[in-house]
Every structure is written in structure tokens, then in C-alpha cells.
Amino acid sequence: MIRNFIATITKKISERRDNPRYKLQIPIKVWFEPEKKAGKLPPPQLLTEDCFICGETFDLSITGIAITVPSIRIRENYLVGENRTLNAELDLPDGKVSMQIVGTRYEQIGEHLSVARYLIGARILQMTPENMKVYEHFLHNGHKILRKAASSLALEVDEV
Fold first, then answer.
1. How many other CB atoms are found less than 10 A from the CB of residue 155?
2. How much of the chain is helix, strand and coil, in % rounded to 5?
3. 34-75 pLDDT, tens per residue?
4. Phi and psi at residue 128, in whole multiples of 5°?
5. What is d(CA 145, CA 139) in angstroms, rounded to the nearest whole number?
6. CA 108 to chain centre
7. pTM of the predicted model, to two decimals?
């Protein structure tokens, strides 16, 4: 009983200390930030915008995002590790929002290999002020915006 009480108090304190996370599922496109040219070697062709992976957000906050993707890597390069900077583009109802993120952790979700997906936790590194304004507005009003968008897409059936 005391252990449960302490666990509850610890959870409440950590929730107040951390930024709130909003469970919002929206499409996301992720690709590698091109690496700077090192000496006389040409940059790898893999790290370009035309080589990307699409997924969906799991949750969002001011400082980070969690996304689900079908693979943990693009070709032979892992999305998480080595402090690799990634570009991300969220497809919000109010428009696209671009940001730079760095993956901090990942775990495989799904029980079978044919449907396995990866949950990636990432920290937001950079965003333009305009994108930040749209992103923050979506964080605080996302459930209403998504509900309104879904109701406008509802199909009407004519009765005979």
C-alpha cells in the first residue's frame, strides 16, 4: 500500500515537471539531414530528401515527439543513434510543419514480424518561429481540429 502511494506521488511529480504530451496521430515524413562534406570525399547519396520514411506520430510535446515507423533504418543507416540529425515534416490540418529532430530511443512494437513497427522517441532541435507558432497552436487545439476535420470528411448517405 505504501509502495503504491509512493509510486502515485512520484508519477504526479514527474508529470508536472515534464512538458505535457498530447496523444495525436498525424502523418509524418522523416529523412536524414545531409552530412557535411568531409575532406575530399563526396557526401553519401543516401542522405537526401528523396530517400525518406513515412510514419505517424504517437504523441507530441513542445520539446519532443514520438513516432511510429515501419523500419528503424533507411537502407543501412539507423534513424536513432550517433546523434544523427533528422528532418521531419508533419502534415497538420493547418499546413506542413518542418523541424529538425534527433532520435533518443526506440523500441519494436507489434507482436509479429510482418506487422512489426518501431516507436521512436525524439527531441526537437530546431524549428522556425512560424512553424513553432503553428505547431504550438496544434498542440493545444489538436483534438478539436482533428475532430472538426473528421466530421467534414464524413460521408453523407442518401436515403431511398
1. 4
2. 30, 40, 35
3. 766 556 655 555 455 568 999 999 999 999 999 999 999 888
4. -70, 155
5. 10
6. 15
7. 0.73
